[in-house]
Amino acid sequence: MTLKIDRDQNRFRQIVRGKIRENLRRYVNHGEMIGRKGRDLVSIPLPQLDIPHFRYGENGRGGVGQGDGQAGQPIARGEGDGMGPAGNEPGSHVLEVDLTLDELAAIMGDELELPRIEPKGQANINQSRSRYRSIRRVGPESLRHFKRTYVEALRRNVMEGNYDMRRPRVVPIKEDRRYRSWEEVQEPAANAAIIYMMDVSGSMTDEQKAIVRTEAFWIDTWLKSQYDGLERRYIIHDAAAKEVDETTFYRTRESGGTRISSAYTTCSTVIDNSFPPEQWNLYLFHFSDGDNWGEDNRKALMVLRDALLPRCNQFCYGQVESPYGSGEFIRSLEAVFGDHEEKVVLSEIADRDAIYDSIKEFLGKGR
Q: Is 216 found in the same domain as 162?
């Protein structure tokens, strides 16, 4: 039977989810939900949400103001400096609510109306996995199920008439021990890889990289909810490109010219070495301010057409507005790949407020 406190807790979580839905655009655009990702939990600050609490009455006795004293006399020194006159407006309170990434992805998918992805490649191939779903009488001590062991010992004591409610002591014996056991189950194998590419030349500022980081977090969150396994690779480029780790990807700032073709060529090499297209669902994301060395445009478009598009589920180009970049590369993509709407998705990201719509443009195809 569900206890009343459980019903109240479930109702409170529904209120929380409703608040998240109402303010999702703001959370997404400004990264307020990326507080921590440890153990698959995300900390979400929710403003103006009252936390359920007890209200204490007088209980038939005098209040705290009883006894000697003058009207208006302070009872105790308050905290803080107390500078300035007293206010009459309520303060703003923030509640941190923990949601799993799966819950977060579900909310985002509903609000952005994102379609479910139908994986290709090994999506219809089953693989064996071990799941701990049963209990046995024998097994290694590392898998002993302590709760089930205690229940068996308690049941035995009660049946034998040895259980004393005044001295409730239960000591399991060998026959009481229960162990977790596994069984082989068949699950579909659907693997995906995201390859992020970013221009790190001098025209890409820290603000532009912060936009890319926020958008990449939400892209990861959605694709993780669609696939059993998700790999991520990172490529940075100016006039030359190289594969780096995640920290370097977001923190590197370089100067010099820009050759976008170098990033696409490096991406093709990563696919050749690590992600056979017949086995992996590949998602390619390139972020730049659109400034490219003029003679390199033709080569970049050729590598994209011949080496990347035939092997990926989707290619997404996000052009982050910068005061220094020319912003012309997206026009070249539109001119050449305007009829590839299902596989090539282009998005212009003017500022943080445009992240929400950009994510919907990128992921709304469901490829």
A: no
Same domain for 172 and 207, yes or no, is no
**Inter-CA distances, 122 with 125, 160, 273, 305, Å:** 5, 56, 18, 24
Burial of 237 (0-12, 13-18, 19+ CB in 10 A): buried
Strand blocks (E) in 200-336:
229-237, 241-244, 281-288, 314-320
- What is the block-wise mean pLDDT of the chain (367 residues), using blocks of 10 residues? 59 63 66 47 46 56 58 58 57 54 77 72 52 83 89 90 86 90 65 90 81 85 80 92 89 78 96 90 92 89 95 93 80 86 88 89 79
Give the end of a domain, one of 81, 113, 145.
113
Does residue 68 form part of some domain?
no
- Note whether 31 and 42 are within 8 A (CB): no
Q: In this structure, are 203 and 236 located in the same domain?
A: yes
What pLDDT does 36 receive?
39
- 341 and 194 inside one domain: yes
Determine the residue type at 263.
A
Evaluate whether residue 144 is within a structural domain.
yes
How far is Cα 326 from Cα 30, in angstroms, rounded to an integer? 25
What pLDDT was estimated at residue 29?
Answer: 67
Domain that holds residue 104: 11-51+93-113
Query: Residue 52: how many CB atoms within 10 A of its CB?
Result: 9
Give the per-residue pLDDT at 189: 56
Residues 34 and 18 both lie in one domain:
yes
Phi, psi of 283 (to 5 degrees): -125, 120
Gyration radius of the chain's alpha carbons: 29
Question: Is-contact 200 256, C-beta < 8 A?
Answer: no
Please give the pLDDT value at position 46.
43
265 and 295 housed in the same domain: yes
Please tell me the pTM assigned to this model. Answer: 0.62
